[in-house]
Fold this protein.
Amino acid sequence: MGIVNIGDELHDQIRKASAVSCRSINAQAEFWIKIGMLCEMNPTHSFNEIVARELRAAGVVPKAVKVAAT
């Protein structure tokens, strides 16, 4: 665990997004960081494909269910 310094504008965007997503500010920032990292590691996959893969890996969506990418 550590401290990450971010600008006021980004912090404000995280705060607003966290309210919409029903996440804490820290959880929203962590989500964006994780998704950004996964997007960089998988540049040929869409956001929806990456999220679907993570949901399957977490056991939220059964592996047999094909999640359609938009």
